[in-house]
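Appendix B, example 12.
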Amino acid sequence: MNVKTSVTAAPPTSGTLGMSTPPLSASSLVADGVGAGIGTANHTVHMVTMSKGGVGKSLVAWNLVQYLKDKGKTVTAVDLDSMTHTLAEWKGLGARSIDLLTGIDGVFNDPAMDQLAEDMLTAESGHNFVLDNGASGFTALTRYLVDNEFPALLAGFNGTLVVHIVLAGGSASAQCLVGLNTVLKAFTHKVKFVVWVNTFAGTFMVDGLLLENMAIYKDMTKDDRVIGFVRLEPMGRAFLLDFDRMREERLTYGEAIASPKFLTMNKSRLGIIRRKVWDQLDALGLGA
């Protein structure tokens, strides 16, 4: 399938997402003096997303926040999942909670998102934002960013948008493939991608094809849009027990490894799990 075709924004579900007049571009804003004088900034917005729920988006965001902090980065974690706010349950991450959709009708929260956009655009050099977006807000947030030409606007403020697409294996593979195609079509300019392949529930495979044998893989890796891939592999029983215990107690890797409640072997296994993820992120240069 062709992932390079531009996407036409769908009609808005609520609010002002489908504005009748074209949004201002980053270049026009800078020309008008908006964003001028911020030329020394160099910051990154990491958005973790997928249209299907239960694929590990919060797990990816949880790993990413810790990794960036371990690399000495200034990080603002933002939990946008209106249904669960899972990431915010980890007090050690200090995540901000924003209800992206409000009320029983799920109206898009434009004021809150505009303020977050302001914070991301005007962030200091070296600052990293990690957005954990739930499946319920997938379409609305994607439309907001595309309609408002946020990637180009962020680039005008010397920032970069990195979209982390989470693919889950097993029975979720086909739905995740649709979500992958949607994201790649929506964000065609000024965006980088990292694809996380979560095989905890099985191999990522659709119609008998592994990801690397699919047409979409060949298409999206033609240029430099895709920074690379991170694989979350199944764990042995003892590793999984330690990992699940850490997560159930809402601890970070560092907190669990420092805790007297965990034995030396527990801590060692958690360190191995962390290193396997960190090594992959290092190889992509995300901590540089």
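The first helix runs from residue 26 to 31. The radius of gyration is 19 Å.
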